[in-house]
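User: C-alpha cells in, sequence out, please.
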C-alpha cells in the first residue's frame, strides 16, 4: 500500500484541564476549532513573528498530540514548560518512535487526516508509531509535489514567517482568535498584504541540484532551493521578483539549470505583476 514510516518524527502530549486554552493562546493553530480525527499544521513563533517550531497537532482522548522533528522535540518541551506557569497542564514525551503515513485511501489504526494534504487534494493519514515499512522518499516526493514545506528540509527555524510557508493557506494560522506569541506581526502582514516570500514548486528537465542552491532570475537571486525529489523540489522565493522576471521573460535557473516555478494551486495565489500580491 502507499505508505511510509518516518523515523525522524517524534511526539509529545499536552493534557490536563487547561490544555486546550493553554495551546490556543500560544500557537498559531485554531485549537478551539480543531475537530477530532484531523491533524493541522501549526507553529510556535518568536515575539517577532518568526517560526520557532513547526509541527502537526491533533486531539487525543485527554488532550493533544504534537508531532515534530525528532531534533526539535526536547526544545519544544522546554519551551512549552516555560510558558506553562500555573496552568493545569501536563507536557510529556511519548515513548512511541516515529510516525506512519499512508495515502490513496489506505487506513491506519488510530490514524488522523492531515488537513494540509487535504487542501492539496490528497487523502493522507498519520498515525503514531510504526505500522508500515514504506520508503520515506515516496512521502517526501508527495509532500514536495503538494507544495508543503517543513523545517530542516525547506527552511531554517527562526528564519521564516508563517506566510512564507503558506501556513495562512493550509489551516495552520488563525486570524480569528485572540493573541498568541508573534500574533501582532503576522496579523499586520496579513492585513497589509506585505507577504512577499512564498513556497513554490520548482521543476526542471533533469534532476535538480542540492538543497541550498540559489535560484536566479538572470543574475538576481530570488530564493533558495529546499528539498528535492528528482526533477521537482520546493523553494521559498520572493514572488514579486519572480513576477517581474516572468513579465520580462528573464530566465529562471538553479546552478545553471533552467527551472520553472509554480505556486501551489490550492494556495490560491499568483505571482504579482504590479506592486501587490493577488489574494483569493
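Assistant: Sequence out:
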Amino acid at each position: 500500500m502507499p505508505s511510509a514510516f518516518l523515523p525522524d518524527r517524534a511526539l509529545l502530549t499536552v493534557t490536563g484541564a487547561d490544555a486546550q486554552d493553554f495551546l490556543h493562546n500560544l500557537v498559531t493553530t485554531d485549537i478551539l476549532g480543531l475537530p477530532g480525527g484531523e491533524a493541522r499544521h501549526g507553529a510556535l513563533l518568536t515575539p517577532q513573528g518568526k517560526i520557532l517550531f513547526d509541527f502537526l497537532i491533533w486531539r487525543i482522548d485527554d488532550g493533544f498530540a504534537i508531532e515534530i522533528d525528532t531534533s526539535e522535540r526536547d526544545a519544544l518541551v522546554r519551551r512549552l514548560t516555560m510558558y506553562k506557569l500555573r496552568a493545569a497542564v501536563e507536557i510529556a514525551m511519548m515513548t512511541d518512535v516515529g510516525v506512519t503515513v499512508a495515502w490513496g485511501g489506505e487506513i491506519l489504526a488510530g490514524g488522523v487526516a492531515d488537513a494540509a494534504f487535504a487542501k492539496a487534494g490528497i487523502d493522507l493519514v498519520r498515525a503514531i508509531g510504526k505500522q508500515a515499512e514504506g520508503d520515506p522518499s515516496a512521502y517526501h516526493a508527495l509532500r514536495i509535489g503538494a507544495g508543503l514545506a517543513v523545517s530542516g528540509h525547506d527552511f531554517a527555524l527562526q528564519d521564516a514567517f508563517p506566510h512564507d510557508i503558506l501556513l495562512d493557506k493550509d489551516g495552520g494560522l488563525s486570524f480569528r482568535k485572540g493573541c498568541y506569541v508573534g500574533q501582532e506581526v503576522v496579523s499586520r502582514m496579513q492585513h497589509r498584504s506585505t507577504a512577499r516570500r512564498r513556497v513554490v514548486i520548482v521543476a526542471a528537465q533533469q534532476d535538480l541540484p542540492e538543497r541550498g542552491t540559489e535560484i536566479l532570475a538572470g543574475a538576481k537571486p530570488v530564493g533558495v532551493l529546499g528539498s528535492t525529489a528528482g526533477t521537482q523540489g520546493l523553494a521559498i522565493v520572493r514572488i514579486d521578483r519572480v513576477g517581474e522576471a516572468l513579465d520580462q521573460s528573464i530566465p529562471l535557473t538553479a546552478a545553471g539549470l533552467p527551472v520553472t516555478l509554480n505556486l501551489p494551486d490550492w494556495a490560491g495565489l499568483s505571482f504579482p505583476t504590479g506592486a501587490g500580491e493577488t489574494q483569493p
